[in-house]
Structures are given as C-alpha cells and as structure tokens.
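Incident log, structure service

09:12 report received: a user says their structure output differs between two submissions of the same chain.
09:20 pulled the input from the user's history:
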Amino acid sequence: MDRIHAPCRCGNTHWDHFESSSAPGFTNVSRCRCGRQYSQPKSGLWYEITTDGHALLFMKRNALGRWTKATDKEIANHTLEPIDTKGAEGSV
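09:34 re-ran on a clean worker, output below:
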C-alpha cells in the first residue's frame, strides 16, 4: 500500500505519524508529530505550511506514484497563498 502522506522534513514517513489538522486559509491540512504542518490541496502535491502563513511545494508524486523532492523551479512555480476567507461575505 502506498503512503497517504509524503515524508516530513523530520524523516517521519508512516501514515500514523500524521493527524488531521487545520491552518487558516488552507485545505486538507495534516500535522506531523514533530509539529510541522502540510497541505495537500491536489492529489500528488505536498506543501509545507511556513510560519509566515504561506505554503511551499515540498514533495510531489512522480509518474510511478512515488514521492520525490520538488526542484527549486517547481517550488518557485507552486507557492500557495492562503485562501481569503473574508471579503466575499456581505458583498453585493
């Protein structure tokens, strides 16, 4: 069986090292036992949520379904900003 989660930077790789979590502006958030948070908004892309509230691509699945570390170019092209949960309410 393939892993649900990509490995954490701390080295944890087993699914039971992660739990469902939340972070403002991000979906499908998991927290590793070490405290790092990750978001997987699309299947095959694994983003690390940074302390400044952004998410940087950390790992991706290759064509064989294995997790591989993102290249610098991929990281630059796949930075996530938090979803704006305000502003849409009350607009006419």
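09:41 both user submissions now match this output. Likely a transient worker issue. Closing.
09:42 reviewer note: Residues 15-77 form one domain. The radius of gyration is 14 Å.
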